[in-house]
Each structure stands twice: as C-alpha cells, then as structure tokens.
Amino acid sequence: MVAGLLAGRGSARPGLAVARYGAWRHTRRVWRLISILAAAGVSQVAIAQADPPADQAPSVAKVLPGKHHQDFWAWLEAPFGKQIRLIIDQASANQQAAQAHDAAPWDPYSGAYRPVHAARRQALLRDAVGMLAYAEKLDPEHLEVARALAIATDELGDPRARPRLEHFFALAADHDHGPARVRLGRWYAATKHYRRAIDELRVAAGATSASSPAHREALLLLACLYMHTDQLPDAIALLAASELSPTLSPIDATLRFALAVAYDRAGQISMAHETLRALSAAHPDALVRVLRDASGRPLVFVPPSDRAYFAALQFEALGYLIDARTEWQHYLAWPDARYKARARNHIQTIDALLTKSQAQAPATSP
C-alpha cells in the first residue's frame, strides 16, 4: 500500500502522492490511539471483574476503590467529576452555615440583618460562589453546579444571579424547578421586566405544591405585581383563593394580609377591615408575623415601595398610629408609588384620630 502511494513520486503530480501518504500515516496514528484507549478500558473492566484465586485475598483496589481504580469510561466522560462533587459539598455546607445566620437577630424596622451576622453571612456566601464559579469553569454544562451557583449568587443579592438563573434554565429545559423560577421572577420584577416576571411566577406557582413555601411566595409576588400593574381585581381573586395552613406560618399570614392591602388599595375599606379582623382571630400573633417569608426572614418586596405600604398598614392595624404615619410618609417618598392617594387618605385619618385623642386627654396639672 505504501509502495502504491509512493509510486507517484516520478509522476507529474508528486504533491498528491505525498499528501496521500501523509493522510495514511495520520489515519494509522488515530487508529493506534483508539486501540490503546480501548485496550486500557477492557483491562480495567477485566481487573475489576476477575475473581482472585481461592488461596489469595481480594486485592485492596477491588475492596477499597481509590484513585488508581476507577471506571475509565466514567472518567473519560467527566474527568473532573470527583473534584466537582467535593466543591458542591463544601459550597452546600457554606450555604447551610449562612442559613443559620438567617435566623439571627435582624432589625425589624429596616428589615436588614444586624452588622455582625450580615458580615458573616456574606462571607460564607461569597466563598460558596467562588468555589462554584471554579467548578463551572471545569464543567460549564454541569446542571447541579449551575443551579447551586445561581441560588448562592441570588442569596448574596448579586445582580449576576439573573443571567446565572437563565443559564440554569437553559440547561434544564425539561424541568420546572419552581423555587428557582420564583427567584428568577423576582429578578425580572426588580429590573422592571414585569411581563416576564409575571410569566415566570405563574409557571412557578403551577410547578410547585400548593402547600410548599415556594408556591406561597410565588402567589405573593404575583399578587404584588398585579397590584403594581393596575390589575387589582386579579390580585384580589388570586389572594382570596389561596388556602391557609392550619399553623398559619409567616408567609400564610402575609398572604392574607396582602389581601387586606389589595382591598384597601381598591377602596373596599370594610372588606379590608374584615380581613384584618379574621386574620387576628386566626392567630393572636398573626399581625406580628407578616412581612416575613417562609423561613421567618424579612420579605424582599418587589417593588420595594410595597414594604412601606405593608408596614404602614401593619402598624395601623396594631394601633401604633405615629409609626404608621411615618411609614405612610416613607411610601409617599417613593417615585414609583402607585397608590399615593390612598396613603394621603390614611395620613389624614391618622391625624384626625391623633387630634381627637389629644383633645380627649385630661389636662395635666402643673
């Protein structure tokens, strides 16, 4: 064969003969490499399956697989599999440690973590994000890495969470992953992509169990977006149809409180008062539990101005009129606040009640 290829040396086309010979040598090298790889894989399987003689103890490699005894083809498919698994486990430990700081004391007025706990929580999450980002470089299409990295980045409050969540869903096209969709919907809403946020939250609500915290958080965010986009009837219908758990968790209390907010914004004052009375009757601490998520952490409101509206109505329902008035003023300071007329009405009512209370107070003797 070689002679045939080289026979063209004296012909008028010597370059063609040389090219054919070079191609033949390259093909032979490729087949030799494939043969070596196949022989190595067969030998690994043979060693793993071979039974030792009766008078010989099993090999240590067979009993305790180590770095010198592994599935060759599994290594060929995922050469960094073990390293990535170690990274995922360590990052998960960091995230669990950060969750311990979620239950730590936080300022109920501002909804922020206190400095010591916030610093430690951020450090743990930053380390987790750094480790997972390195794992992503090792295997950019690793589904578990993509999900863990997106969630850790979201917990950190980093805007890169949105593209990382989108990357995760691009890899997991056939999966719903409702909790992760709630996070993505929140980012779309925070960047004022309200239509996309509503679509994501609808999918998230349908992809999660009705009793799950993710389902309830999806309903709450969806109702807030309906109210922010002048769809009050849809918000009321959505919240009125939601079912409360027997224990009335914080997110359940917030869902029912959001219904009172929707009634108040729609001008249905009697329905708002009736909803608040029913909520107080359901649990003695129900009004204190609102403004928290399923884990008891401060809720992330979208739009952020809703926090002031919810807090103002909460203080008003609890009887703290001066604090309520302060929160209504905070709400009016937001440029994108859509229910400023209702906030002014509340301030007028509070001022009238305070004036009446001062007039009825007995005069103190000097």
Summarize the structure.
This protein is mostly helical. It has 18 helices and two strands. It has a domain of 89 residues: Serine Threonine Protein Phosphatase 5, Tetratricopeptide repeat, CATH 1.25.40.
Query: Can you tell me the overall shape?
Result: elongated
Q: Which sheet architecture does the biggest sheet show?
A: 2 strands, antiparallel
How many helices?
A: 18
The appropriate CATH architecture of the domain at 81-104 and 111-175 is Alpha Horseshoe
Q: What is the percent of helical residues?
A: 55-70%
Quaternary state of the chains:
single chain
CATH class of the domain at 81-104 and 111-175: Mainly Alpha
According to DSSP, the number of beta strands is 2
The CATH topology assignment of the domain at 81-104 and 111-175 is Serine Threonine Protein Phosphatase 5, Tetratricopeptide repeat
Give a structural overview.
This protein has 366 residues and is mainly alpha-helical. It has a domain at 81-104 and 111-175: Alpha Horseshoe (Serine Threonine Protein Phosphatase 5, Tetratricopeptide repeat), CATH 1.25.40. The protein contains 18 helices and 2 strands. Strands 1-2 form a two-stranded antiparallel ribbon. β1 and β2 (112-113) form a beta hairpin. The relative contact order is 0.05.
Secondary structure: elements and pairs:
Layout: H1 2-6, H2 14-49, H3 60-63, H4 72-77, H5 81-102, E1 106-107, E2 112-113, H6 115-138, H7 143-156, H8 161-171, H9 178-190, H10 194-207, H11 213-228, H12 232-240, H13 250-265, H14 269-282, H15 286-289, H16 305-318, H17 321-332, H18 340-360
Antiparallel strand pairs: 1-2
Helix pairs in contact: 5-6, 5-7, 6-7, 7-8, 8-9, 9-10, 9-11, 10-11, 11-12, 11-13, 12-13, 13-14, 16-17, 17-18
